[in-house]
Amino acid sequence: MQERQALGGKLLTVPFKVCAAIVLIGLFFIGKRFIFGIGSVSNMNDGYPWGIWIAYDVVVGTALACAGYSIALIVYVFNKGEYSPLVRPALMTSMFGYTLAGISVIFDIGRYWQAYNIFLPWLSNLHSVMFEVALCIGTYILVLWMEFGPVLLDKFKADQLKARLNRIIFVFIALGILLPTMHQSSLGTMMLMAGHKLSPLWWSGFLPLLFLITAVVIGYAAVIFESLVAAIAFKRPMEMHLLSKISALMPWLLGLYLVIRLEDVNLRGYLPLAFDGGLLGNLFLLENLLLLAALLILVYPANRQSPRLLFIASCAMLLGGSMYRFNTYIVGFDPGTGWQYFPSVPELFITFGIIAAEVMAYLWFVKTLPVLPRLKKA
Amino acid sequence: MKIRRRDFLKGVAASGLLLAAEQTPAQAKRARKDLPPNAVGILYDSTLCIGCRVCEHGCKEANNMPMEHTNPKERMWDDPQDLSAKTLNIVKRYGVAGKKDSVEGFAFIKRHCMHCIDPACVSACPVSALVKNPENGVVTYNKKACIGCRYCQVACPYNIPKFQWDSPFPEITKCQLCSHLLAKGGISACCAVCPTGASLFGPVEKLRLEAKRRLAMEPGVYYDFPVANIESTEVQKHRAGGYVKHVYGERELGGSQVLYLAGVPFANLGLPDLPEDSYVALADGIQYAIYKGMVYPLVVLGGLIYIIRNREEKKE
User: Fold this and answer.
1) How far apart are CA A363 and CA A233, in angstroms?
2) First vs last Cα of chain B: how many Å apart?
3) Which residue range is the domain that position A299 belongs to?
4) What pLDDT digit, counting tens, does each position of B56-75 carry?
5) In principle, which of A12, B84, B162, B260 could form an S-S bond with B248, CB 3.0–4.6 Å?
6) Are residues B134 and B79 in the same domain?
7) What's the domain count of chain A?
8) Cβ–Cβ gap A205/B124 under 8 Å
């Protein structure tokens, strides 16, 4: 087991306080939503029943939180133990990302006080993709906390409990790989049902596969991004030897994705739509060009050694992959009856609040819990 | 041990490819669904509709729906512009002047739930709040089950389910074919009050035959048209309209229990051109191909547990 350390240091820094202020504003609007209804804070409507709370907080947010999934895949399934220093920070971002996505679902769904109906077997609809996604994400949040459990138990010196958890943790690790594979692809299957309401540039029988690949791509990109930013922010050495090795995988994944994505649109005969100069066509091009740019950077081994290029490539992957998911749920969706949607300010602030809460939790945990690898004293 | 793991991984990769291959839409579709045995529905004939909106009033009265005031200055009348959480049934007009039922002129269309044979909302709903009655095929809503996720709204190809955005305790609203009246042996309120027979209630099989009969009529000649309920004896004499030769709802997305006849192309009336296979059949098919009824996930989970446990043990 690698040694890990809590970073220590002052918690109430300026960024922490700014985040706290944003969280308070978000909480105010959440309060308003519970008293006056969703319409009082959101621009969602009967044509666009899902807005940024679903498209960003859940669909993009859980992909960003696939860091833990992607790293677990490589460490546990492909048996590359050398990456295990990346496991804890990755797991932690996943834990926060999924937990907050779960929380934002509670204020997004209209009849939240009946949310437990999902777990009542006599109401479950096994044909519903939503049922599978809800159940999977719910279980996965629990699994993530169990996987992260040893870190918390370390802190509280609960050795006996930790030993007991460690004995069965392989079950949670296995579930932690299976569940995201299921629900991340199902997030794509979900929009199959939108049918003619979703632009043919995004609607495809390959939605489940493309969503799964973007989850993994975004997951690795998040690991690289998080590791580089943490190194700069906390003045720690960069984990370049690991990051450049991981990024060697990316050209393969991105290549596979782009071939399926473009060939699918092409075979269905909709590629001309991409070049008609309209908003949808341009977004389609942008989304794929970003991923192509990342591929072109990372395909050269020398580039993978440069922190700057690695950072640029990870940003391109995060943006390109997130745009694909966001466009599938919002921009490419058109109910066709003159409805329009652009998020309102309160609605945006609730999402900003969620992001700020995530940053705060991250800062708090890395400073007080043994998450990041211990530095060797030179 | 090592070889076994490699074999397992190969198996996983192979099944991954298999899944990818199975995801081509043409193969993954599941079979179409049949009309329920005692399916009832509505045949709306746009050429008979005079746009009087009595059906809107009848619907609101029968379902206790509130008035809707789109124009804030005019609070005397109910004036919905489209279906909403307050309006389950609406008559809309395409075009403003000129000859009725001509592309250059104007025409009416009545919108409400189509009661699809393979309803997307029912398949989408995670908690069975929307169900299709296995006998008469009516799609009904149960607020006690609903969690308000609004996937039904995303899934419905006709944008029918509406949500109470302004309520802290919102519900989904949609036409339920007056199932409370059907239970007492009655018919849907909109058909009961329709003065011209433009909205005709009845068993779907009979409505389909009636639609075919009308398509075969000679335009301009007087024929008998049943009123309110196709099984009643009440008829009115009308000149046959010049129909577009298509029964909308007979095949669209696997068919629906509400059928439309019109004198202008349906696309002009806000009814999109749709394929005959439902998106539900496709999504279900793909979901089944991937999961094979949860068998695949359990196999994968078993494999994962096996290799991870081995590895952890080796470490100690």
Assistant:
1) 11
2) 16
3) 10-39+51-110+126-336+345-365
4) 999 999 999 998 888 877 77
5) B260
6) yes
7) 1
8) no
